[in-house]
Amino acid sequence: MGVLENRIPPPLVATIIGVLMGASYRYLPGFELTLGWRLAAALPVLLLGLGVCLAGVLSFHRARTTVNPLRPESASALVDGGIYQYTRNPMYLGFATALVAWSLLLASPLTLLGVVVFVLYMNRFQIVPEERALTMLFGVDFARYCSQVRRWL
């Protein structure tokens, strides 16, 4: 078990990476696009990410289980309906999509490396420990769910 496992709230991880993307884009090659074009590209992607996140939260609330990512062992239900039929981690997928939108707004393709860092971090320090806890809680039901639904997309 790593020292960073389930320690930093995922919205904070996304925010830190977003800040680093914003601080670095001036030093990276990018496209000369007007703000209007950048907004036109970024806004629909951001709305998609927010919608995916919200769908995940609403599914958890409907199931009356915790949305606290730092305490997966306190889950009271295995949520496999709604958006969870398509992705096991819609909230994290939504954050990653929002980071893609931020990269589009920055108009610097190399800032997409921030999205890669987010996904790698989440896989190692958030999702793997969550899956370990959910396996302990829900056993074969969770294993079956994992075999049917992909981690991200």
UniProtKB/TrEMBL annotation:
Example of a GO cellular component annotation carried by this entry: endomembrane system
Q: Which residues cross the membrane?
A: 12-28, 40-60, 99-122
Q: Does the keyword Nucleotide-binding apply?
A: no
Q: How does it sit in the membrane?
A: Multi-pass membrane protein
- Localization: Endomembrane system
GO BP term, pick one = methylation
Q: Output the superkingdom of the source species.
A: Bacteria
Spell out the Pfam families in the cross-references.
PEMT (PF04191)
Q: What is this protein called?
A: Protein-S-isoprenylcysteine O-methyltransferase Ste14
